[in-house]
Amino acid sequence: MGDYSIYTGVKKTFSIVDYGCFGATLAVSIAIGIYYAIKDNQSTSTKNYLLGGRQMSIVPVSLSILVTSFSATTLLGMPAEVYSYNTMIWWMCLSASIGLVIAATVFVPFFYNLNVTSIYEYLGMRFGRCLRVLASILFLIKALTYMAFVLYVPSLALNAATDFSLWGSVISVGIVVTFYTAIGGMKAVLWTDTFQALVIMGGLTAALVQGLRVVGGLEAAWMVAEERSRIYFTDFHPDPSTRHSFWGLVLGGSILWLNLSTGQAQIQRASSCSSVTRAKLAMLMSAPFLAAIMSVCCLLGVTMFAFYKDCHPLKFNSLISRSDQILPLYIMDILGHLPGLPGIFISCLFSGSLSTLSSALTAIGAVVPRDLIQPFCCKNISDKMLTVLSKVIVVLSGIATIAFAFLVSQLGGILQATYTVASITSGPLFGLFILGMFFPRANKWGALVGSLTSLGVMCWIGMGAFLTRASYVPPSPFITSGCNWNVTQSTIFDTSPATIDSTSQLPMNATRDVMNDTSTESAVISIFKMSYMWYLPTALLIEIVVGLLVSVLTGCTKPEDLKPELICPIFDRLCPFLPESWRQRLRFHKNTERSKKSKASTEMNRHHMDDSLTSFLHDTVAFPSNDHIPHTL
Questions:
Q1: CA separation (Å) from 489 to 309, 358, 482, 486?
Q2: Which residues contact 65 (CB under 8 A, 6 or more apart)?
Q3: In the prediction, which pLDDT does 474 show?
Q4: Which of 12, 343, 377, 511 is least surrounded by CB atoms within 10 angstroms?
Q5: Which residue has the higher pLDDT, 597 or 590?
Q6: Last residue of a domain, one of 379, 411, 443
C-alpha cells in the first residue's frame, strides 16, 4: 500500500491509455450523432427531431430516462455523503422508486395523450399564455444554471484530484454534447444515453469490485464503517430541520423525484415511445436500475471510508481541498496502477454529465421555439423551419452553457447559492402543473399569484439559509493517525466552508447542507434551518394554498367549462379498483355526468355494470379516459 497517495502525499495522474479511453467515449458519442444526422437527413419534421418520430423502443428510452435522472454530481456526491456523514442517504433509493412509479402511472399517460411537444403548452391550454410564458422562462433559467453547474463542478473536482485539464474537459464536453444533440436530435440523444449508461455501469462496477478487493471485502468494509458511526439508517426524527431524516428523505425525496421525473426532459423521452403503454413501461423499468446505481454509489462511500479509515486525505498535504474530490482521488489510488481503468471511470463520470446536458439541451430545443418564439412572432412557421430553429436554439444554449461555466468559476461561494436558486424554481414550476391537473377550480389568477408567492418565499428561505449559515453541524469524525505526515491529533472534524459547498450534491438539484446548530439558534430565523429535502414540499404547499385562496377570491373556474383532457383523473390512475360510481364522484368533473343524464336512464342502468368492468380493466392495463385523443402529433 506504499504507493497510495495517503502514504506518498503525491496524487497519481492520467496515463496516455486513460486519456485514450476518455477520448473514445467522446468519439463514440459524436459518431452516434453523425450517424443519425446522415440517416435522417431527409427528415425535417419536428416530431422526428424532438420526439424521435414517436417510434423509439422501450430499452433506449428507459436507459435514457435512467441516466437523465442523475448526473456526475450524483456520482461524486453520494459516495462523498456516505463517507463524510452516514448511510441515511440510502433511503433515496426508496423515494426515487416511489417518484418514478407515480410519474409513470399518473403523469406520463396524461402528457402523452395531450400530444404536446413542450409540457408548458399544457399550461397555456389550462391557464392562458401568460402562465405558459412565465413557466417557460423559469424553466430556461433553471436549465441553463443547472447545465453550467453540471459541466463545471465535475471538471473542477477531477482537476483537483487527478490533474485532469479543467477547461480542456469543460470545453470538450460542452462542444461534443452540443454537436451531437444539435445534429442528431432525440434519436442520437437516446442512443448516446444508452451507450453512456453502459459506461456508467461498467465504471461503477470496476471501482466497487477493485475497492472491495483492496479493503478485504464488503464485510470488512462494512464493519469498519459501522464501528465508526457511518452505518446509520434509523433517524426517524420528525423535525423538518433535521438534515437527513427518514421522513425528509422518503416523503420529501419522493416529491423531489416525482418533480424530476415529470420535467420536460423526462416526459419528452417517454413521449418518444410508440404507445402510452410503452412509455409507462420505459419509465417503470428505469426505477430498479436507478436504485441499483444509487446503492452502488453508497457502497462506494462505505468502501472509501474503509480505505481511508486511518488517514483522512482532505486538506492534508494539499491532496484535495473539498470532500467531493475524494472519489476521484480514491479511484486514482486503487485503479491507477491499471492503465485504462481510471480513464474508464472518468468516462463514467463525464457520461453522467453528457446525458444530463443532452437532456437539458433537447428540452430547451423544444420549449424555447414552441413556447417563447412561435406564439409571438412565428405563428405560421413551417415545420421545416421550426426544426431548424430548434437546432439553432440547441447550439446557442450549448454555447451559453460553456460561457456560463466560465462565469460560475468566478463565483466562489456564490456557486452554492446559484445552484440553490436553480433548484428552488422547481417548486413553483411543479406547483403549476399540480394546480392545473388536480384542482379544476383553480383559475389563472390563482396559478399566477400562487407561483410568484411560492417562488419569492422559497428564494428568501434558500438564500437566507445560505447567507446566514443558519444551521450547520460538522461531519462525522475522521482519523488521521495512520498518515505519515506530521499530524498532532488523531481525530479531526472538517468544518470548512469548502465542505459545505459540495459535500452533498444530490440528483434532485440540492447542494446545501442544512443541519442543526444550537450555537446559532437564537441569532437566525428558525425557518432558515429547514432541511433542503423539504424545500419542494413547502413550495408546493404554499402554491396550492395561495393559488386556491386567490382562485376563490377572484372566481373559481367551473369544472364543467374545462375540456376533460385538461384534468387528470388521479383516482382512476391510482385507485382503479374502486367502484365506478365512487371514481365518478372523485373526478370533480361534471361533463360525463351531464351526458349521462341526457340519455335514457334505464338503458344506462342496464349497462352500468358492464361499463364499470370495462373501465376498470382499461384503467388498469393502459390509461383511463382520453381515448379520443390521437397518439400522433
A1: 15, 47, 11, 9
A2: 261, 266, 269, 270, 282, 283, 286
A3: 60
A4: 377
A5: 590
A6: 411
Is the pLDDT reported for residue 494 higher than 60? no
Residue 173 near residue 95, CB atoms below 8 Å: no
Q: How far is CA 248 from the centre of its chain?
A: 17
Provide the grid cell at 46. Answer: 419536428
Neighbours of 1 (CB within 10 A): 8
Cell 441553463 belongs to 144
In a domain, 435, yes or no: no
What is the crossing angle of helices 326-335 and 129-162, to 10°?
A: 40
Supply the pLDDT for residue 625. 35
Number of domains the chain contains? 2
Query: Which residue range forms the structural domain that includes residue 102?
Result: 5-35+47-411
* Chain-centroid distance, C-alpha 583: 33
Which of 392, 411, 430 is the endpoint of a domain? 411
Q: Which amino acid is at 100?
A: L
* pTM for this model (two decimals): 0.82
Question: pLDDT tens-digit profile of 384-395?
Answer: 888 899 999 999
- 521 lies in some domain: no
Distance between CA atoms of residues 583 and 221, nearest Å: 52
In a domain, 253, yes or no: yes
Residue range 517-522: mean pLDDT, rounded = 45
Torsion sign across C-alpha atoms 336, 409, 350, 325: positive
Residues 6+ apart with CB under 8 A from 371: 118, 120, 121, 124, 132, 133, 135, 136
Whether the CB-CB separation of 29 and 181 falls below 8 Å is answered with no
Cβ–Cβ < 8 Å for 424, 510:
no
C-alpha cell at 335: 485503479
pLDDT for 251 equals 92
C-alpha cell at 292: 441499483
Distance CA 558, CA 493 (A): 59
Cα 553 to Cα 10, 441, 546, 549, 556, distances in angstroms: 67, 12, 11, 6, 8
Cα atoms in the Cβ-side hemisphere of radius 13 Å centred on 55 = 4
What local confidence, expressed as pLDDT, does residue 363 receive? Answer: 93
Q: How far apart are alpha carbons 269 and 616 in whole angstroms? A: 28
Mean pLDDT of 544-548: 96
Instruction: Enter the C-alpha cell of residue 438.
Output: 388536480
Confidence at 495, pLDDT banded by 50, 70, 90: very low
Grid cell for residue 406? 466560465
**Separation of alpha carbons 87 and 112, rounded Å:** 37
Task: Please write the tens of the pLDDT for every residue from 238-253.
Answer: 888 888 899 999 998 8
Taking 70 as the threshold, does the pLDDT of residue 299 lie above it?
A: yes
